[in-house]
Amino acid sequence: MVSYPDSASAERSHSHSLPIRRPPSVASHSSRASTVRRHRQHRSNFGGTSLAPQNEFPVFTHTGDVEIVLSNGRKEQRYLLHKLILTQCSGFFEAGTSDEWATAGAGAGAGAGTGHVSNAGPSNGTALARIPSGSRPEQKRKWRYEMDWGSSEHDLPMLVQKVHNQSTLFGGGDPTPAAQPPPARNKPAASQSAFFRTMANFSTLHVSATTPESDPDDDIFRDYDNLFRIFYNYPPSLDDVNIANAYVECKSLLQLADMYDALGVIGPRVDHHLLRFQGRLWKQIAKYPPSYLKLGYMARSKAIFAEAMVHVVGQWPQGINQLRGQIAEPVIELIEDKVDEMDELKAKIEVKLFRLSLTTSRGERVSPSSNWLDWIAVSLFRQWLAENTTPPPAPILKSPRPPTSRSGESAPLPPPPAFNTGRIFRVLGQAGSSYLNHDECKRFLRLNPEHYNRDNLKRFERRIDEMKNKAKDAVKPLMRNFLELDLREGGLPYLTCTRIDPHDFPWDD
């Protein structure tokens, strides 16, 4: 016989063990939610960091593998860059981070100069053997470069590859004392300025403002920073107001790029920066053509190089001392070729000028027998042309005794100034009253009182003007201007008809 528990007692026991659930009320839900929100702001961030490590120029913490340290003991700049970018932009870094360089450095002994840095990992061979081959961490090579300032002021600062034996941006290593700062360059003391300010209810106050002394190596730090900024396609910090300062900064940057075999990357950026000056740039090139010719050649700037070349050829050999031995020989050869071409053209035009003549009403050339006054006008023009296109003769009188040097030998005399006929052709191209004007014609006719009168003077001036117009047409090939400079503001005393063709640039060979 099966007995069953009493249903009433079962219900009573069940009611004591499991309380009856009621549907949650809105008030209880809102109070619980408010409690959660109230305590949410007190969550702990233990183990995290509020600032993420920098991974942008100039320090790429996560991806950089080439550390560069510029330090002179007073100032320090650190870069953590990418080998891929540096090797693509600079032949120096391409060679320094190559496997051949590392092998040669390792063979030299003790790994000196290799700059090889391995990540921290198991160094025990037994421990490495326990790790499966597929899960072993691949070691990433890293390099470190430091600035070597040289032993004297005449040495050029240069980056050298160092062994990773001190605390760096990569982490680890034993920190070592910083290198001694290089000798400070001679620099004048910083100037002090004082100013007075008057305020109501106050007497005059004297406040001296002392400008902080700048580091003598700031220019070097600036050039290296601009170099790396251009590598990463950032705009360089170059003066965009004063073109003279911009030239100095661009020149030093190009010289640095030449040291690190990076002219192909730096040159176009320098070219772009200088061309933004537009008209001021062309005027500056006209003042210093040899300097801008060298800069244009280093920057591979076709616009700057061609503009400076036209000025140099027109003034040649005036700038030979500033270029000989300071620029590549192909550039000197190009200058000499262009000068020869211009001399040939001038010789042809001189022949045409001396053959110019006037004709009579019957179409015959004037002569002393046919028309004496017209023949005199032709003779005066030819005489003026011969005097101004022929170098002056050497003096007959003895020159003063040259000063003697300490060794007793007489110092050589300075060479005579170069004779440039460009100014004469410019005058011929202007015509008008620029030469053989009214006063000169009047003075010439007065030498023969028999032929001097008002009618003859007017006729003589008209015939001289005809000769001028013919000469103006003859020299037109020399009056061409291949400069970007606007010559309407003021002419130049030399010819600017040199044309630089695309195949003339010496770096396109």
TrEMBL record:
| Annotated region described as Disordered, given as residue ranges | 1-57, 107-141, 169-190, 391-418
Where is there biased composition of kind Pro residues? 391-403
Q: Where is the composition biased (Polar residues)?
A: 44-53, 116-126
Name it: BTB domain-containing protein
In its UniProt entry, the species of origin is given as Decorospora gaudefroyi
Q: What is the lineage of its organism?
A: Eukaryota, Fungi, Dikarya, Ascomycota, Pezizomycotina
